[in-house]
Every structure is written in structure tokens, then in C-alpha cells.
Amino acid sequence: MLLLKEGSMPRVVHFEISANDPEKLATFYQSVFGWEITKWAGPQDYWLIKTGEPGTPGIDGGFFRPTEQFTATVNTIQVDDLDETVEKVKAAGGQTVTSKSIVPGVGYLIYCRDVEGTLFGLHQADARAGMG
């Protein structure tokens, strides 16, 4: 558990994605992003997602089976090469929902759906985007 320093703002440190078929979804995210996904040994049907090494920017997360109260969350994932990642999404069975758009002074953004229809965003940082 992350301890906050006094006076600091709370930050997102974990994400969760609803999954009807966690094994299928794990294969998708592993093939697109190289994430490590393992079934949790605890009492709940839960899958842990490791997106990078400790101490590097980003957060880890998990898959859960949807319930009436808990369904899906949209998360945006930063990538180095948006176009290349979109091709990987399509090759793994996902689809794009929007066209690539410019967020002026921030970068490029596109929304996609994974193999179960979960919406997620892809962002490529570029401070020069749309500035000239």
C-alpha cells in the first residue's frame, strides 16, 4: 500500500478492468503491451496485472469478473508509438473506436476496444502536437 506524504495529493495507483473471460483478456493485453498477468492466489477470482518495474512511471492493476455493481473502467495508456500500438491492437483482435486526435501541446489520443469490448484510450506524448 502506498503511503502518502503529508500534504501530497492522492494519485491513481491501481486500475481494474472487468473481464468475463480473464484468460482471453490476459492473452490480449500480454500480446499488445507485454504485461505480466497472473491469477491471484487469494479467495477471489482476481488476476493481477504488472505493467512495469517498481520505481518506473505507471500503475499496476487487475481483472475482476463483473457484477451488477462493478462493471468496467476506462483507462488511458501512454505508449511510445501510437500508430504501431494501434496495429498491435487490431492484430490481437481489438478495434479502434475513434480516429487519432490531437490534444494540442500534449500529444495524440485514440480510443479502442479490446477483445471483450472494453473501452480504453491510447496516448502518445508530444508537446509539439498541434502547435504549428
Fold and architecture overview:
The chain has 132 residues and is of the alpha+beta class. It has a single domain, classed as 2,3-Dihydroxybiphenyl 1,2-Dioxygenase, domain 1, CATH 3.10.180. The protein is 17% helix and 31% strand. The chain has helices at residues 22-33, 82-91; strands spanning 14-18, 36-39, 46-50, 60-64, 76-78, 95-96, 101-103, 107-113, 119-125. The strands form 2 sheets. Strands 5, 6, 7, 8 and 9 form a 5-stranded mixed β-sheet that branches. The radius of gyration is 16 Å and the shape is globular.
Tell me the series of helices and strands, N- to C-terminal.
EHEEEEHEEEE
Helix content: 10-25%
- Quantity of strands, as a count: 9
Structural class: alpha+beta
Question: Considering the protein shown, what is the CATH homologous superfamily?
Answer: 2,3-Dihydroxybiphenyl 1,2-Dioxygenase, domain 1
Rounded mean pLDDT is: 88
| CATH architecture annotation name | Roll
Backbone shape:
globular
Oligomer: single chain
Give Rg in angstroms. Answer: 16 Å
DSSP helix count?
2
Through-space gap between termini? 43 Å
Uncertain stretches of 5 or more adjacent residues = none
- Strand content is 25-35%
Q: Main β-sheet, in a few words?
A: 5 strands, mixed
Count of domains: 1
Which CATH first-tier class would you pick?
Alpha Beta
Could you please say which CATH topology applies here? 2,3-Dihydroxybiphenyl 1,2-Dioxygenase, domain 1
